[in-house]
Design a protein that fits this description.
single chain; 369 residues; alpha/beta; Rossmann fold; 3 domains; eight-stranded mixed sheet; 11 helices; 8 strands; 15% strand; globular; tRNA (guanosine(34)-2'-O)-methyltransferase activity; tRNA processing; transferase; methyltransferase; Putative tRNA (cytidine(32)/guanosine(34)-2'-O)-methyltransferase
Amino acid sequence: MERSENARVRIVVKFFKDTGYKVGQCVCASRTPHNTTQTTREQNLVVRMGRSSKDKRDIYYRLAKEEGWRARSAFKLLQLDQEFNLFTGVNRAVDLCAAPGSWSQVLSRKLRGQEETTEQVKIVAVDLQAMAPLPGVTQIQGDITKVSTAQEIIRHFEGHPADLVVCDGAPDVTGLHDVDEYIQAQLLLAALNITTHVLKPGGTFVAKIFRGKDVVLLYSQLKIFFSGVTCAKPRSSRNSSIEAFVVCQNYSPPEGYIPNMSNPLLDHAYDVDFNQLEGPNRVIVPFLACGDLSAFDSDRTYPLQLDSDKLYEYTPPTQPPIQPPYQQACHLRRNNLLSREDTASREDTASICPETERLSTQTAEQSHT
């Protein structure tokens, strides 16, 4: 007896949950479908389920797509600005490790919001990866550890230093927390290093930080260059994450300090015992949870139907990645070329070693007889 359409849909949904197929990898519940239209409808349903599942699990990911942001991290900078008024009086801003460009989007919308100040505002985005263009944002595809990159930033500002430097860069986490914290600390120090080349006295520096056991070393280093250092946790940052942001205000480097890319900053050059403080003398940095308490909880799962007056509709990402590092791997897997490469490599090995191939053939014939 032919199943009804609703029963077939339920079977497809159960199949999707049991097998864990990803989006676009679903198959029909019936091997010999009676109706091609029904089959297509069922497949589209499964695809929509896969796409909408992250919209329920991550509310800021969903809001970012609906509001046109390239990534959910845009809300982190917006909530930091609500607490610290980061954009007040800023005409020249730098976004380090900018790709895919969500923080550059925030800078562009906030600083270029008024038409009379559009020509005065200059925004520079720096990243090793390519990034889709943004209105009013000059892109530099370069390395933040190079002096030439700092010189290029100053050149775009026509010789003037920046008022604000932000950095939302983070390494590809490995799952080894000590390693991830160390790499993130080095990335933050690299961002701080180039900031000393391009930031004006009294300027502001905002960067991501992992609050690990040795985070006091970073705090002590930042306190050398900024009179005000605050560790802030935006509402859109998950509570389960050790991610936070340091808001460093009033840039005032030590007297006689000359920015230098050759030496690391954390080398105990300023005070031998400065980074070894313990107990009551340990460097204490205020920790502030910023963002409206009535805002969405980043760790909570929300229903797709947030507003009873507005039906949910899936929104695709604003800007797909441009040449991501995993693009080639995805292409090989999507076209089932990974196994072919293995086969080809075995054939190449056999052709290189004909004697080995001959011996293996004789062994196979003897075992067969």
